[in-house]
Amino acid sequence: MKFTKAANISAKFKRVGVVGGGQLAAMMGDAAKTLGIELVVQTPDATDPAVSVAAGAVLAAVDDVLATAQLANECDVITFENEFVDLDGLRSLEEQNVLFQPSLSSLDPLLDKYVQRCYLQGLGLPTPRFWAWDCSQDLHLDFPFVVKVRRHGYDGQGTFIVKDRESFESIRADLRGQSLLVEEFVPFDRELAVIAARSTTGEIAIYPIVETQQQNQVCRLVIAPAQISLDVKSDAEAIVRTLLNSLEAVGVFGIELFLTSDNKLLVNEIAPRTHNSGHFTIDACETSQFEQHLRAVCQLPLGNCDLKCAGAVMVNLLGYESAESDYLEKRQQLAQIPRSFVHWYGKKVSRPGRKLGHVTVLLSEEAVDRGRVQAEAIAQTVESIWNPN
Ligand code: ADP
Which residue of 5, 44, 195, 359 is surrounded by the most CB atoms within 10 Å? Predict the structure, then answer.
């Protein structure tokens, strides 16, 4: 298949509005420059990561529809870096011919975790067993099981693994009054993620499938490519194609999967945007997920998803203290790791668990062959520099 390089592309849409201004929008800003596109972001604070790399900013909450109307006045197309939007409010803009990519109807079944599970079930795709719950009834499920807030959860905030009756009662008291999703706990063998893009013409491009590892429900480590059988790979790709086609998706989507010990896949979550598990693509692939997203939303041909190297490991730099620091010295030390690329999001304040940056380390064939052992060694090297405590 022939691909067009960014340098040979002339975008029809020159200004893209992005609802959200965190690190995902900031990394899209870097990709925009290679395509000759300008980004304007909608984000609450002038110190948010994407503001300094964008051509302009509308300083407002991401669910402020009037602000999105202003953004639309300045841009050819609007896209999203997060899903905490006011979909009903945005529909009035779509009726006035504002172009959203992905469209609001693609987002509609995805924003609420319970609705998303129902959508997957309707497509016949495998998911953990699930129920809607509002804390009023008792639950008679075997422990452990999982409770999730239906909207606005991220990085494991809003996901609770309920291990026993005591933790159940305390979670129930804390979450009273909220709409929740309850689901079976899946004793997965591994977690996988697929980053894929769909264009307005229905073309689909899928990146190498990765393994993700979470700690306290937050992504710690991503291994590319995942060491999986060809059958699992083709099952995962088939799930992704069904999903993206049914959603009539446009842009990059991240799909998180559980792989069980008997090689069955279950869909955990679909994110209608670029995704943490795709950060390795910046340094390790021919086209980064951020460039790919912009290509799709700007109606350009999709780029090549292939790895440029044998593999890569991505380690998140998660905050471990409440502080105001740019951690420059640590970043300089991290940059000394052979074949490493340090990405710093420029957040002004660190908090425990907050994503402050990431490091990608490219792998040789031999390192890929060493598999998870090698990935764990790299993660430990990064973490011993980042947080020696
Ligand atoms: P978020 O949307 O905040 O990222 P997720 O639903 O993806 O939350 O859950 C975060 C992590 O919690 C998952 O990556 C996985 O490790 C764990 N988890 C979530 N749901 C289940 C489940 N049903 N069974 C086992 N582990 C789960």
Answer: 195
Q: How far is CA 188 from CA 101, 185, 268, 372, in A?
A: 33, 9, 11, 16
Record the tokens describing residue 133, joined without a space: 């719950």
Q: Give the phi and the psi of residue 20 in degrees, each rounded to 5.
A: 120, 150
Distance 217 CA to ligand 1 centre (A): 6
Tokens of 147: 């409770």
d(CA 328, CA 357): 12
Q: Do 29 and 2 contact (CB within 8 A), yes or no? A: no
pTM (two decimals): 0.97
Tokens standing for residue 174: 């804390």
Cβ 287 vs Cβ 304: under 8 Å = yes
Indicate the residue type of 364.
S
Q: How buried is residue 380: exposed, middle or buried, by Cβ count under 10 Å (0-12/13-18/19+)?
A: exposed
State the amino acid at position 37 in one-letter form.
I
Query: Does the CB atom of residue 383 touch ligand 1 within 6 A?
Result: no
In three-state form (DSSP H/G/I as H, E/B as E, the rest C), the secondary structure along 37-81 is CEEEEEECCCCCCCCCCCCEEEECCCCCHHHHHHHHHHCCEEEEC
For the stretch 217-229, pLDDT in tens is 999 999 999 999 9
DSSP assignment of 78-109: EEES-S---HHHHHHHHHTT--BSS-HHHHTT
β-pair type (251-259, 190-198)? antiparallel
CA dist list (Å): 65 to 16, 46, 89, 100, 108:
17, 19, 6, 13, 16
* C-beta 35 within 6 A of ligand 1: no
- As a residue count, the chain comes to 389
Q: For residue range 99-148, what is the model confidence (pLDDT) as tens digits?
A: 999 999 999 999 999 999 999 999 999 999 999 999 988 899 999 999 99
Report which protein residue has its CA nearest ligand 1's atom 21. 185
DSSP string computed for 226-265: ----HHHHHHHHHHHHHHHHHHT--EEEEEEEEE-TTS-E
One-letter identity of residue 236: A
Q: What is the DSSP letter of 143?
A: S
Q: Whose CA is nearest to atom 8 of ligand 1?
A: 156
Q: Which residues of 114-128 are buried (b: 16+ CB within 10 A; e: fewer)?
A: bbbbebbeebebebb
